[in-house]
Amino acid sequence: MALPTQAESWKNKSLSDFWLTGRGLDNNKNGNGQPYALFSHKLLASEDTDAQAMALTAILGAVSRVVDIVHGRNKFTVNFSSKETRTDFVAKQIALSAEPLFNPPRGYLMPDIVDVLTGMALHEAAHAQYSSPEYYTEMPGNPFMAVIRNVVEDTYVEHLTTLYYPGYAGYFWKYRRYEFDLDPDKWAHKPRKNLMENELNLRATDFLLVMRSTRDYVSRVARVNHVADMLKKMIYIDNPVRLEKLNTRTVSRRIYDELFGNLVQHDIAYSLPSSLLDYNNRGKHQGEPGSAGANNKTNIPSDLQNLIQNMRQEQLQVANMSELMEAGLDPDYPPPPPPMVVFRRPLTDEGAAERYEQARSVVKPFVIRLRNRLSWANTRQVINRYHLPSGELDEDSLYQARFSNKIFRRTEIIETRTRKLDIGLLVDTSASMVYPAGEGISRVQLARNLAALFVEALEPVDSVQTWVFGFNLKGAVNMYELYSPGLTNKARIGMTGAEGTTPEGTALKYAALRLMSEGRPFVQKVLIVIADGKPNPGPETRMVKEQVRRLKALGCKTINILVGDRPQEYGYEYVIPWTDYYTVTTEFGRLLKKLVEEE
């Protein structure tokens, strides 16, 4: 009996089964693994959004595990494409097409679909790791050269990845099988009336299928087979170090000349269409509304995307907080496991926008006051000089002048240079914030009002960027991203609540790390903490003082706004006790003005 080929073994096994079940391929082969039903549209059509999100999050977890193993040092984030998400190699964010989930091929089980999605993700990550920057910036306008460039680069990065990680070649094979072979008409050559155009598209199509199909496609055009063999000899080598030195741009030019050189001049090719132009956009998995790529088979709803993101963050952003348990514990007993630190963007409810508008209306007079204290240093100063011998006509002087050359004016614009600031605002959202703060409002309402004050006042200031985080400890250290420079919706600030305890030291640490990583390089950092009481006793209290000292050594300014009966004993560089909006606005404006003016 003949042994099964490698392709047949990949076809019959679900490579992702281990990541989904934890039992491995052998158990499922014996019938002991977890049974899977066919993945159909019923899951995504269900009205239970939480169930959808949980299933999709589990799939992303399986995909991300493989990507992390192969490309972990690059810290890629994997998600499904939506209107807000697309593959972004600069931000290290990979977007997967949701089409295999919405429209699964006949006979595909859930692990098979995860295999395909894993191949997609690995393909994108391979481009980010092994493609040179010029690949993204100088894609030629000649559509046929663009197809050749894509095919050469795709083949190159996939083979290089499999040389370093041979066990994952099957993911690429399954992705190619799904992409190029399940629908025979998808990439089939479409005859054209124009003989030149027909021959160009035939060669381009056949070259694509010879290199990317998993069915050992053989072209009817001898030149295509010859060129494909030539490319395979250059790329399918066993030395990854040598392969990394290959210049794929030069290879693409050589392949193009061999494939089309006897047929058409370069200037003619620029004017002819290619049936494979869609292939040039493969990997982005996202189009603008109304474009060919923007359809309900590739994108998932934005609200579902947000829910998945939150669930993924709970899995991914598990921080090592062992230093919290180092002091004050009995050495005879091992310390308890550290709590998780979870960054999330809370989903806004119907009342969030209204609560934010209420907060904004309360502080509106003070917003203008605080903004005025800063705007002088960040706005153009326009000065008009009058009674000049030349310049623009001064109409007010013109009608009075009998005869004079001093009827002109000149406008001078003075650009004031100011110091840039990245400001992070930490809002205590622990249970003690439900207590009254005076003036008939609770402390959490006061904190919301102050957050609205800072965001509304600082947002128009060109040199300042602002982040707002809420924090509490309830099972995990929850860090709520309420506002950031990348978010245009301020309604999340209306989601501030009050529950759990006060992990102020941990929140200070991880908010600072977030500010350092997302903020602008060489820009002054400022952290403002709005809290009402003492941090959690023991390690948390000590950690506050330790983190304040570390931030001061790094040049990061710290400001503590005291709400309630909070003592002034945590070492913050500046402290503003809460009395009223006028006082806080005056003191805060004075401090920020000082920071803006600092050299």
UniProtKB/TrEMBL annotation:
InterPro entries per record: VWF_A, vWFA_dom_sf
Pfam families xrefs: VWA
Gene3D superfamilies documented for this protein: von Willebrand factor, type A domain
Domain VWFA, chain residue ranges per copy: 422-565
Domain of life assignment: Bacteria
Name used for this protein in its record: von Willebrand factor type A domain-containing protein
Annotated source species: Desulforamulus putei DSM 12395
Lineage: Bacteria, Bacillati, Bacillota, Clostridia, Eubacteriales
